[in-house]
Amino acid sequence: MEPTAPVAWEVQKISTIFIRNRKAMDPRQRNADSEDEWIQAKETDRVTVLKTQDTKETCLPTVKNTQRKMPRVPAHLRERALGMQQGGMRTADVARTINCHVRTVRRLRQRYRESGRTADHPRSGRPRVTTPAQDRYIRISHLRDSFAEISTVCNVTYNFHIHSFPWFGMDIGGTLVKLVYFEPKDITAEEEQEEVENLKSIRKYLTSNTAYGKTGIRDVHLELKNLTMCGRKGNLHFIRFPTQAMHRFIQMGRDKNFSSLHTTLCATGGGAYKFEEDFRTMADLQLQKLDELDCLIQGLLYVDSVHFNGQPECYFFENPSDPQNCLKRPCCLDNPFPMLLVNIGSGVSILAVHSKDNYKRVTGTSLGGGTFLGLCCLLTGCETFEEALEMAAKGDSTNVDKLVRDIYGGDYERFGLQGSAVASSFGHMMSKEKRDTISKEDLARATLVTITNNIGSIARMCAVNEKIDRIVFVGNFLRINMVSTKLLAYAMDFWSKGQLKALFLEHEVCQKEIEVNAMCSKTKAVVVRVVTGYWLTFIP
Amino acid sequence: TRQMAASGQMKRSSHSMDKSIILPPDEIFRNLENAKRFAIDIGGSLTKLAYYSTVQHKVAKVRSFDHTGKEAVDEPLYEISVQEEVTARLHFIKFENAYIETCLDFIKDHLVNTETKVIKATGGGAYKFKDLIEKKLQLKVDKEDEMSCLIKGCNFVLKNIPHEAFVYVKHADPEFRFQTTQPDIFPYLLVNIGSGVSIVKVESEDKFERIGGSSIGGGTFWGLGALLTNTKRFDELLQLASRGQHASVDMLVKDIYGGGYSCLGLTGDLIASSFGKSATEDREFSKADMAKSLLHMISNDIGQLACLYAKLHNLNRVYFGGFFIRGHPVTMHTITYSINFFTKGEVQALFLRHEGYLGAIGAFLKGAEEDNPNQYSWGENYAGSSGLMSVSPELYPMQRTRSGTFDMLEMDRLDRQLVNLPLLLDPSSYIPDTVDLTEDAMAREYWLSCFEEALDGVVSRAVASQPDLTDAKERAEKFSQKYQHKLKTLRQQPFAYGSLTVRSLLDTREHCLNEFNFPDPYSKIKQRENDWALKFFHKVVKSLESLNWEERQFSLVKGLLAGNVFDWGAKAVSDILVTDPDFGFEEAKQQLQERPWLIDTYNKWIERLKGPPHKCALFFVDNSGIDIILGVFPLVRELLCRGTEVILASNSGPALNDVTYSELQILTERIAAMDSVIQSGVQKEQLILVQSGSSSPCLDLRYVPEQNMQISNLSGHVCYVLLCYLSAGHKNKNVFFIKIRLDKGLATVVRERHTDLVIIEGMGRAIHTNFYAALCCESLKLAVIKNSWLADRFGGKIFSVVFKYEQPCK
C-alpha cells in the first residue's frame, strides 16, 4: 500500500466503521465483527466495505444518493438475484424486483459465471494510506480507549510516515503571501516511480527557481536544510509574493491542476478567510483555515527547536546602546515563557504568551510594516519594501525629525530627555524651506525610524503592563531590516534601563507557515472529527 | 495709538490680512495701563499673553450715619456712596504669532504705570522672539520651563474654574459635556500633544513626572501632512482631513480578512495597517483621504499610548491638551474614539476649555509666586472672556471665525479662599444647579428670552441708581449691548462658558454690570425698602408675640415667604412694584398660595420644632428690605429665643436687591437697637453674620469662604467697612464683632458651631440652585415661585410656595 492519503482520514474511517459495528443491534452483526472479516473487508474496495458492513437500515442513504448516481446492489440482493434467475425468473422481472437495470443483472450473472463470486472486481480506487498493520494498530488502540481523541490516535500512528506530497503551508497576510514548501530529499526509487507527473513538475519548478513571475521570490538564504519533518527528511523552502498576486497564484494552481494532488490547502492569515471563496471556485481547492496566532506561536517554537541550519534561530544584540560594540549574539529559547511576542506585519499584533496554548492578544497598532511601505511609496515614489529599505539605510532622519536639542538647544534635563532624542517625528517638515530641500533617502529613513520607535514604545509599555521582560520581535517588517532591529534592541534596552531584552529571529518572515505545515495532519484530524458522519464527502 | 490705527488702515486697504490687524483697544489688552506682571507663552502658531492688572471700578459702599442720641425719622438709615475700588484681575489674550509684533508695539505704547522689569516667557517660540520682546518692551525675558508651566496652569484652571473639563461627543447637541469639578483634582494624567507628545502624571501641586511620550504628535501630522498633501497650514490640513475617507488609504481588517476577525473581537472596519493600501494599490490617492488617514493614525497612536500609561499608573482621569487638540473637533473626536476603543470606555478623554492658556497661566503664576496666588480664589469673568466656540458650524452657524480673532480670558481675584461647605453630604456629587440649560433646550429658550425681556428694566434701574453721573446713560447702553451680545452668543453656543444655567446667566449679568461701573443698580431701592421696612419691624414683632405658639410658627413662615415675594430679580414682581407703590407686606401675604403648598412639608417642620432646639442654624438670606427685616429677623428672633445660635450668611457683593454683608451689618445693628433679643444675641455671639463669598443671586455651596483675609492683606471693601466703623466711633463691642468675622469665614464658623440646620431662602438659592442639594444635616429650603413658566414646570401657579424641609437619611 502506498502511503498517500492523510492518516487521520483513515483513522477516522476505521474507527467509525468499528463503532458502528459494535453498536449495531443485530446480534448477527456483532458476531460478524471478527478480525477476519475486517481484514477481508479492508482488502476490498472501501465503499464495498461499507456496504457489506452496513446492511439494511444502517446503510448511509445520503452517501448513496449524493455520491453515486447508480444505485449499487447490496451483496445479499446480488445473491438473491442470482437465486431468482436460477429459479427461472425473467431477467427483467429480477431487475425490477431488486430495483436495478437489466444490464446490471446480466453483468452479475456473467461475473458469477467467470469468477464464481457476486462481489465486484477489485478496483484501483484511491491508494490506501495505512498499511494493514497500521489499521490493526488503530483498531486495537481504539479498543483500548474508545474515547481517545482522533488526534491522539493519529499522533501515535503517524510514526509511519504518511503524508501526501506536496507539503505546503501558506500565510496570506495583508501585504505579502508567505509560502513554505517542504522538498523531500529521501524519496525512494519506488516512490519516485509512483510519483505523479504533476507533483514532480511542481517540485522541480519550486526548487530550481529563486524567482517566480515578476514578484514571487524564494528566500534562498533562509532555506532550512536536512530537516526531519513528519518522519521525512528534506529541505524547507521559503517563498513570498505580494498578496495582490494572489489571484494569479490561484490561477496557477488551477492550471497545474493542483486539486488532483490535494483537495485541501492549509492556510493562515487574514487572506485565508478573504480568498477562501476564490480558491474554491477558481481552483477547486478547499482552504483549511488555521488560527493565525496559534500558528505564529507554534511556528516560533518550531523554528527555535529545529535551529537554523545548525545555528540557533534566535538572536539578540549585546550592548545595544553602544553602536561600536553592538554585537549580534545567537541564543536559544530554552525556557521561552513568558514572552511578549510582537508580530510586525502590515499592522502590529502584540501577544503575551505564557505557554504554548495560553496566550492573549494584548493590543495592536495600525502603524506597522504596511504604514512604512505605504508612506515610503507616497513620499519617495518607491515601489518595493527592499527599495524603501535601501533608501532608508542611506538616509539621515535627523534632517526630517525635530530632536529635543532642536527645541531646547540641548538635553531637556527637567525630564531627563537627551538632546538626541526625537521630539517630533517629521517635525522639521513643518517648514517649507526644509521640505523643499529634503532628500528621499532621509524621508525613508525618518519613516522607518518613526514606525520602529513607535512599535518599540508600545511594546515596552505592554511588557511592563504584563510584567514580562522578554520581547520577541517577529514579522515581515524586520526582514533584511537591520536598522529597525538594532533600533528596537536599543530602544528596549535604553528605556527599560536594561530590564527588557529584545529577541529577533532569522526567519522573521516565515515561522507562521512552518507551523501550518507541521500542524497539517493534526488539525486535519480535528476537522474530520467535526464532520463525523459526513466523512465520505472528503473522498475524492 | 494713532500710528497703530493708521497702519491698520493702510494695511487693510492693501488687503494683506495675514500680517495686519487693527487692535480694538476697548476690547483687547484691557487695563493694560496698570499691568503689573507679564508672562508670555509663544507656541508654534499662537501667542498667549498673560498679565496681572488692577481694575479700578466703582463699588457701592454703605455707611451708617451716626444715629446715636437722635431720632431722625426722615433721614435714611445709611448712606450710599460709590467708591473707586481697586481689584486684581488676570488677563489672558491669545493671538496668532503673525500679530506678535503689532501687539508688542501696542503694549509698549500703552504700558505706562508699570514698574515691572521682567517678563516670564515659556513655549517653544520663546527663544525665537526673545530678542524682539526685549527690544520692544525693554523687559528682560525670563525663561520658564514649559512643562512645569503647563502643569501649574492646568492645576489652576481645574481648581478655579467650574466646568473646565469636558467630554466631546461628535454630532450631539450640545457637543460638549462638562464635568463637574471634583474636590480633589489629583492625580491625573496630562497628555500634551504639541509637536511631539508628552505624557505627564500629576500627583499634587508640585509633584509631577513625565512618565512617557512619543515623537508622533502634532508636528508629525503637520510635517507629514505637508509632505503628502502639499498643504502648508495646520488648520487647512485639518479641514482636508475632515473631508476625507480614511478607508481608501488605510488597510482595514476587512481588506485582509474579507470581514471581521471575530475571535479577536476585531470588527471589519478597524484599521489594520495605516497607509497599508498606498503600498499595495497602484493609484493616486486624494489629499483629503491621506490627511484623514494620517489624522487617524496619529490620534489612535496617541490614544493607545495614553491608555497604556493610564493603565500602568492606574489613573482614570486623562486630560488632553496641546496645539494638536486646541478645540479642533476632528482631533477631539478621533482621540475620544481611540480612547474609548482602547480602554473599552473605562477612561474618558477629557479636554479643557482654557487648554490654550495653560502655559501662559503657569508662567504667570511662576512669576507671581511671591504674591502667593494660591491663597486667593479666582473666578472667571464672563464679561471679559471669550467663550468656547462650537466646532460644528452646521449646528451653530453664527459664530466667530477662528482665525484672526483674539481670544480672551479674564479672571477676577476673589480675595478669599473658597472651599466646600462642610455640611455637604457628598461634595463630589454635588451639583448646585437644578436645570442644566445646555441639555434642556426648552428651558434654555425660555430663560434666554426671559433675560432678554428683563434687560430694559435692568438698564433703566442702572441709570436711576446713578442720578448724579452724566455718563450713566451711555454706559447703560453699552452694558445693554454687551449683555445682549452675550445672550446671543449663548443662544448659539450654550456651552460657551461651561454648562449654561440660570445661575451663570445671572452671574454674567452681574459681571457685565460691574464692567460698566454699575456696581449696585438696586442700591437706592434697597435703601428705600430697608428704611421702610424697619419702621414696621416693631409692629410685626408685637403682632407675632400676641399669637399662640402654633399660630406664631405659621405666621413666621408665612411672613418669611411674603417677604420673599419682594424680589426685583423676578420680572412679575418688579412690574408690580413699579406700578403699584402701595404693594406691601400684607398685600404680599394675600398673594401667597394657600396651603397645601406646591411642596409642603410644613407639618414635619412643626413636629421638629416641638422637639429639642437646634444647636446652630445657618441661614442663607435673600433680599433686602421687607424680606430680611420683616421676614427673616422675626424668625431669627424666634430661633434665638429657642436657644438656637444663628449664622446669617449674606452675599459678599451686591447682586440684584439681595442684601449684602455690609448692609446686613448695619441692619443688624439697627434692629439690635430696637429689639433686646437680637441685641443680646449679637452681644453673646449667638447671632453671627458671615459672608457667603458670592456676588450672585444664586448659591454654589462648593465655594464658600474658608477664612477671610488677614488684617494685613485687607483690600478695599472689607477694610473700608472696618475703617468706617472705627472712624464712626462705635463702641468696642462692634469693632470686636467685626474683627472676629474677618478672621473666620463661613466654613470655619459652621464647623466650630456644629451647625445642624441650614435654611436656604429664595428662588435663586433654593430653586435655581440647591433644590436637590443633599446635606448631612437638617435643611429647610423655602421660596415663592415668582415666575409663571417655572411654576408651570413644577405644576403650580405663580406665587406658589415651596417649603421643603428635609432631614438627612440615616
Automatic annotation (TrEMBL), chain A:
Q: What is this protein called?
A: pantothenate kinase
Keywords assigned by UniProt, alphabetized: ATP-binding, Coenzyme A biosynthesis, Cytoplasm, Kinase, Nucleotide-binding, Phosphoprotein, Transferase
Q: Where is this region: Disordered?
A: 110-133
**Record carries keyword Cell cycle:** no
Question: GO terms for molecular function, please?
Answer: ATP binding; pantothenate kinase activity
Q: Where in the cell is it found?
A: Cytoplasm
Query: Bias category Basic and acidic residues: which stretches?
Result: 111-123
What is the species of this protein? Answer: Polypterus senegalus
Q: What is its main location?
A: cytoplasm
Pathway involvement?
Answer: Cofactor biosynthesis; coenzyme A biosynthesis; CoA from (R)-pantothenate: step 1/5
**EC number(s) per UniProt?**
2.7.1.33
One GO biological process from the UniProt record? coenzyme A biosynthetic process
UniProtKB/TrEMBL annotation, chain B:
Q: Where is the Damage-control phosphatase ARMT1-like metal-binding domain?
A: 452-707
What reaction is this protein's catalytic activity?
(R)-4'-phosphopantetheine sulfonate + H2O = (R)-pantetheine sulfonate + phosphate; (R)-4'-phosphopantetheine + H2O = (R)-pantetheine + phosphate; (R)-4'-phospho-S-sulfopantetheine + H2O = (R)-S-sulfopantetheine + phosphate
Q: Which segments of the protein form a coiled coil according to its record?
A: none
Matching SUPFAM superfamilies:
Actin-like ATPase domain, AF1104-like
This protein's UniProt keywords:
ATP-binding, Coenzyme A biosynthesis, Hydrolase, Kinase, Manganese, Metal-binding, Nickel, Nitration, Nucleotide-binding, Transferase
Q: Which CDD domains match?
A: ASKHA_NBD_PanK-II_Pank4
Q: Which cofactor does it need?
A: Mn(2+); Ni(2+)
Q: Which GO terms describe its molecular function?
A: kinase activity
Q: Which family does it belong to?
A: In the N-terminal section; belongs to the type II pantothenate kinase family.
- Quaternary assembly: Homodimer. Interacts with PKM.
NCBIfam families from the entry?
panK_eukar
Q: What does this protein do?
A: Phosphatase which shows a preference for 4'-phosphopantetheine and its oxidatively damaged forms (sulfonate or S-sulfonate), providing strong indirect evidence that the phosphatase activity pre-empts damage in the coenzyme A (CoA) pathway. Hydrolyzing excess 4'-phosphopantetheine could constitute a directed overflow mechanism to prevent its oxidation to the S-sulfonate, sulfonate, or other forms. Hydrolyzing 4'-phosphopantetheine sulfonate or S-sulfonate would forestall their conversion to inactive forms of CoA and acyl carrier protein.
- Name of protein: 4'-phosphopantetheine phosphatase
Supply the source organism for this entry: Polypterus senegalus
Task: Give the encoding gene's name.
Answer: Pank4
